[in-house]
Each structure stands twice: as structure tokens, then as C-alpha cells.
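Lab channel / #folding
Pinned by the channel admin:
"Please post every new chain as: sequence first, then the C-alpha cells as a reply. Keep commentary short and put observations after the output so the thread stays searchable."

First post following the new format, from NK:
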Amino acid sequence: MSTLALHRPAALAADQRPARALAWLAAALLLVFVAWPLASILLKAVDGPGGLGQAAALLAEPRLVDATLNSLGLALATTALVLPPALLYAFALTRSRVRARPLLRTLALAPLLAPSLLPAISLVYLFGNQGLLRSWLGGASIYGPLGIVLGEAFYTFPHALLILLTALGVADARLYEAAETLGAGKLRRFLTVTLPHIRYGLASAAMVVFTLAVTDFGVPKVIGGHTNVLALEAYKQVIGQQQFGRGAVVGLLLLLPALLSFVAERRLARGRGAALSGRSVAYAPRRNPLRDGLLGLGCGAIALALLALLGTAVAASFMELWPYRLGFTLAHYDFDNLDGGGWLAFGNSLKLAALTALAGSAMVFGTAYLVEKTPAPRLAAHCIRALALLPMAVPGLVLGLGYIFCFNAPGNPLHGLYGTLAILVASTVAHFYTTAHLTATTALRQLDGEIEAVAASLRRPWWTTFRRVTLPICLPALLDIARLLFVSALTTVSCVIFLYTPDTVLASVAVLNMDDAGDTAAAAAMATLIVASALAATLLMNLAGWWGNKRLQKWKNVRSKA
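Reply from TO:
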């Protein structure tokens, strides 16, 4: 019997009633802002005189069939392009003695700070009709499948890398020692020990890259040319033609690849065994100059390519007229004289990011604490756990469509939220809820349940334990959640593309609008501001984490000295 169960009478005391009420409130919020919008899409797709028959007829249209095949083909090509370099990079950082590994890791994760439109803008500058390197493509055009795949590769590479770093970061040295003793060479050890060990990570990385590439909106919009994909089709149906029923049907199509990937990932997770046991020996790579040198060159080439795409847009934003007049100028940052939203959009994005980080962190961490560390009602806890994982399988574009159908309905009592900054905050928190929730629950499950048991025996209310014990210990995880939500709110496009108004236009949307208006340099300038803001916020939160570890986690140093 768990220690929490031993103190069940204390759980029924008056100080536990607020916890139960808050758990029900959290479940209700997730039902309203996650489940209800998704249900609205399904109802909208089958709404109308034809019902399901009309939806089936729309799915059979050649235009939708072509967009579906294009989306699947481009996503498969992106996955095939991203996985090998991501595996090489992760292997170099975890299984070799390559120099400057922290720097290489930071450079590889830099694309996370940029909106997905930035690599497309850079590709236009480099390989477009006026690009410096357009001759490299021969007669091929960057506007179309080639540009989409390259842009999506930049966008999805850090996501695959993070998963593979985790998969390769833990290994049992005894397996490699046994293989070496049996005479297995380096290649055979890699094929028979390393690859089977990371097969779950490889499959997860492939699914994440595939899903992101299918559902991304920014890259195809900027550089897709005449290539139609599902994300663009949904945008055209809703924004261009005001065909909301057709948009809902396309939204359901976008939902299918993500749901299939999620189900496949869950099935793979069931058969996954533990990587380490109590007798395992942590693997430590030995120095090998030839291997380390070759891997270092490979990582350097990949990092250079990522920096080239990131740096091209940044550099072009300070140049007079690419590629003819390369003199320095700040004219492209004079947003008040340009279309797209101007400085209002940038200010709105900062407000959105700050509110998302504050409200989202409080919601996510507080809800996870109620479920994991208090006797929350069983039904409420099951509801929270299920709905917290649901956004993982829902693309941002689909969630945004759901918010239109749900909160724009006149009969909805929350209709007043539509068109405000609050609805943008809610949708952004909902979109990135799963990753934040998993981070919080992982941190909380590492804490011994004796903490709450001792507090209950001392008749201390749960909120005192939360404030004085749990929160200081879990401060690093809380800052990770806040950093994730802040950066994601700055860079997201698909989640908010249907929800903004002229008064709540965002910087990421302004990049899209400026590029549509032909102000590519101004779009690059706004994207540069997004990257700079995300970088500054990351550094500030890292500084806050350093201060918090120094002031609030002194117990770690005491324990290590003891």
C-alpha cells in the first residue's frame, strides 16, 4: 500500500477539498479547450444536407487526392533526408569524444528558436530567381517539392535530434564489451548492438518528423510554388473561399497521419524494455582520433548548413537590396511603413509569449501536481491524463480550425473570447500542452511520496508542501516548461493562423503577410526579431535557473558533501 493511501483520512480533511475542486476545474478546462474544439471539427465535417456522403465525395475530389499524395510523399522524403544526419549527429555527441560537443549541440538546436517560415525565406535568398547560389541547382527550381523538403528538413532536424540524443544517451557498456570479446568489429557492433537498442528512438524520431512535415504550413506557403499540400488546402478553403465545411474535412485528413503516428508510437512503447538495469555499467566512449575526426567533420558540415539557412535571413534583413546592394541598412525594420502588422505584431507576440509562459506553466505544473501528489478524484485524474496526451496527436492547424468552429459559434457562452488575445493564449497552451505535461509529471514522479505523507502527519496543508518543498525542488523542470511555452508561442504559425484579428496580429503571422506582399526583406527582419527574442528569453531563463539552483537548491550541495 502506498504512503499516500495510508493517509487517506487526511486526504478527506478540509484542506483536501480545494485540491479536489481544483482537479475538477482542471479537467473542465481541458475538456473546453482541447476536447470541445476537436469535437466541433468532426461535427462540422459531417454537417450539412449530404452528411457523411458529402464529406466522402469531397475526399474523392482530384484536388484533395493530389494534395494528400503530395503531403505524404514530401513528408516521406523529408524523413528520409533528416534521419541519417540526425543519427550521425546524435551518435557523435553521445558515443564519441568529438571536441566542442556543447557548442555543436547548441548550434543543432538553434532552429527551434525560429519560425518555420525562416528557412523558406533563406532558401529563396540563396536559390530563388535572384539567389546567390541558384546556379547550383542547374535547371531545377527551388519553388516546389525541392524547396519544401529542404525547408522542412531544417525545421524538423532538431526535433529528431533531441529524440535520438535521448535514445543514444543511455547504454550498457557490458553489451559492447561482450561483442568485442566475441570478435565483433565496430560496424557489426553498431548493427547488432546499437541499432537494436535505439530502434524505438528511431521509430519515434521518424514519426515526429513525418507528422511535422505533413502538418506544417509555413514552409509550403512561402516556397511551395504550385505544389499543393493538405495544410495549404485547409488554409485556402477557410481563408480564401470561406468554405468551412470543406476546411473541416481537410482538417480531419491532417489529423489522420498524426493519429496513426501516435497509435504506432504507443504500440512500440508497450514492447520496449528497460535500457539499463541495476547491474548495468554506463557506457563511456573511448578516444579514437580517426572516428572522432570524421564525426567532427560531419557534425561541422551539418551545423554549417543549419547556420547558413539561419544566418542568410538574418544577414539579408540588414542589407539594402539582396543581392545587388549589400550595404548595411535598418530600413527593413521600419515596420510602421510596411504592411503586415508592424511593431504592433511584434508587441502582441511578446505579450502572447509572456502570458502563455506564465498561465501555461501554472496550469500545466499545477494540474500535474494535483494528479500526481494529491488524492484527486479518480474520474477527474483519468480525464486529465487522457486529455493531456491528446494534443500530441493534433496538428496546430487542426486545433486552430477547431477553435474557429467552437468559439466563433454565436450560441457558445464563451463566444466573447473569440478575436481576443486570450483565445490565442488558450490555443497555444493547448497545442503544446502534452510536452509540458510530460515534463512536469516526470519531475514530480522523481519525488518520493514520503514528502506528502510526512507533511500530512505534521498536519501541514498540501499547498504549504507545494510551495516550500515541491516547487523549489522542481524549479528546473518548471523553467523548462516556461521556456518551451515562451519560445513556442513566439514561433508558432499554424496554431494561430486562423485566430488572429487586425488588433491581435502576431509577429509570426506578420512574416507570412509581409512575404505575401513581396516585402521579403522585411519578413526576414521580423523573423530575425523572433529569433533574437527567443534567444534572449532562453538566456534569461537559464540565468534564472542558475540563480534558483544556487539559492533554492542548496540541499544538493549538502547531500553531495555528506
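NK: The domain at 11-46+346-503 is CATH 1.10.3720.10 (MetI-like fold).
TO: also worth noting, Confidence is low (pLDDT under 50) at residues 1-12, 274-281.
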